UniProtKB/TrEMBL annotation:
Pfam families: Sigma70_r2, Sigma70_r4_2. Keywords: DNA-binding, Sigma factor, Transcription, Transcription regulation. One of its GO terms (biological process) is DNA-templated transcription initiation. Belongs to the sigma-70 factor family. ECF subfamily. The keyword Cytoplasm does not apply. Gene3D superfamilies: 1.10.1740.10, Winged helix-like DNA-binding domain superfamily/Winged helix DNA-binding domain. The keyword Ribosomal protein does not apply. This is Sigma-70 family RNA polymerase sigma factor. InterPro entries: RNA_pol_sigma-70-like (IPR039425), RNA_pol_sigma-70_dom (IPR014284), RNA_pol_sigma70_r2 (IPR007627), RNA_pol_sigma70_r4_t2 (IPR013249), RNA_pol_sigma_r2 (IPR013325), RNA_pol_sigma_r3/r4-like (IPR013324), WH-like_DNA-bd_sf (IPR036388). NCBIfam families: sigma70-ECF. Residues 118-170 form the RNA polymerase sigma factor 70 region 4 type domain.
Length: 303
C-alpha cells in the first residue's frame, strides 16, 4: 500500500501525497518532540521534512523504504538545525538578561543529545549479554533483578555479575571515546519508531503484521517464559491469529533500542468473553543480525 502511494505521489497525485502526510506525520512529530523538547520546533522540523522529501522524492530508489528514508531526513534536519542554532548564538546577539534562559535551554538540550549519543555509543560496544542486561535494568519497566533473571533465563547472581561487568566496561568505553558520534543514537531512534509501529499493529493492520514477521529470520530462535524454545517466524503468525479469534490484542508501552538489541514492552488487552487469554504485560528482547531478528526472549507477566 505504501509503495503504491509513493508511486502515485511521484506521478504528481496530490491525494496520494496527502495520505502519506497524514499517515507519517504523528510518528515523525513524536520523534521531533522527543529530540527538541518544544512543540513549535518539532512542528517546524516535520513540515520541513515533508518539503524536503517531496522535492527529493524522484531520488528515492525503493518505494518500500519510504518510511525509513523519511525518518532519516527528519533526524538529519534536526541535528543540523540544533548545530546551526548553537553556532549562531554569539555574545553580541544574546537576549536580555531576563531572557537568558533561552540560551541555557538550547545548550542544555544540545548537551543532553551529546550525552545520550555518547551513552548509546558506549552501550553498543558492550557484549550482547551485558548490553541486554543493562537495557532491561536501566531502560525498561522490567528492571527488578528477579524479572531480568526470568526473562533471560539465568540466576539472579548472574544478573548481578553481568551488571558489575557492564558498568566497568561502560566506564572504560565512555572515557575512551575521542568523539561523540550521533549515528548509533539516530539508528536507535529509527528502530524504536519501527517497532512502535509494527509491533503495536500486529493485530490491527495486516501490513504491519507482515512487516514485523518478515523482519524475523525464518529460523528465528524464540525463548518463551519458562525457557521453552521454539524456532521459526510462523509462531507469531499463528499466535496473532489465535488472539484475533478471541478478541485479544497488544499495544507497545515502551521501546528501547541500542546497537543490534531492542526491548519491546507491551500491554495486553482481552475481550470480556475471554478475560484470561493473554497476560496483562509482556516484554520481548530482540537480537538482530544484519537487520533481521535472529533470536528473541519473549517473557509474559504472571496471570
Amino acid at each position: 500500500m505504501i509503495s503504491e502511494l509513493v508511486q502515485e505521489a511521484r506521478a504528481g497525485h496530490e491525494i496520494a501525497w496527502n495520505t502519506l502526510y497524514r499517515k507519517f506525520y504523528p510518528g515523525l512529530y513524536s520523534i521531533a518532540l522527543r529530540m527538541y523538547g518544544d512543540i513549535p520546533s518539532a512542528r517546524d522540523a516535520v513540515q520541513e521534512t515533508f518539503v524536503i522529501a517531496y522535492l527529493k522524492l524522484p531520488q528515492l530508489k525503493e518505494e518500500a523504504t519510504f518510511a525509513g528514508w523519511l525518518k532519516k531526513i527528519l533526524i538529519h534536519y534536526i541535528y543540523r538545525d540544533l548545530k546551526r542554532k548553537q553556532k549562531s548564538t554569539s555574545l553580541d546577539a544574546l537576549p536580555p538578561k531576563n531572557d537568558g534562559w533561552w540560551e541555557d535551554e538550547l545548550n542544555s538540550k544540545l548537551d543532553l543529545l551529546s550525552t545520550q549519543s555518547r551513552l548509546y555509543s558506549a552501550l553498543a560496544h558492550l557484549p550482547e549479554v551485558l548490553q541486554s542486561t543493562m537495557l532491561l535494568r536501566y531502560f525498561s519497566a522490567f528492571h527488578a533483578y528477579e524479572q531480568i533473571a526470568s526473562i533471560l533465563g539465568v540466576p539472579v547472581g548472574t544478573i548481578r555479575s553481568r551488571l558489575n561487568q557492564a558498568k566497568l566496561k561502560l566506564t572504560t568505553q565512555w572515557h575512551s571515546q575521542p568523539e561523540v558520534s550521533m549515528h548509533i543514537f539516530q539508528e536507535s531512534e529509527l528502530w524504536n519508531e519501527f517497532y512502535s509501529t509494527t509491533y503495536s499493529g500486529l493485530h490491527q493492520h495486516e501490513d504491519y503484521k507482515n512487516e514485523f514477521i518478515n523482519h524475523l529470520q525464518k529460523d528465528v530462535q524464540i525463548i518463551l517464559s519458562g525457557q521453552e524454545m521454539l524456532a521459526g517466524n510462523c509462531f507469531f503468525d499463528r499466535k496473532v491469529s489465535e488472539d484475533k479469534q478471541v478478541g485479544s490484542w497488544l499495544k507497545t508501552s515502551n521501546v528501547t533500542s541500542c546497537g543490534d538489541i531492542s526491548i519491546l514492552e507491551a500491554d495486553h488487552f482481552n475481550s470480556p468473553e475471554h478475560p484470561f487469554h493473554c497476560p496483562s504485560q509482556s516484554v520481548a528482547v530482540l537480537y538482530r543480525n544484519k537487520n533481521k531478528v535472529s533470536k528473541m526472549y519473549l517473557y509474559t507477566s504472571p496471570q
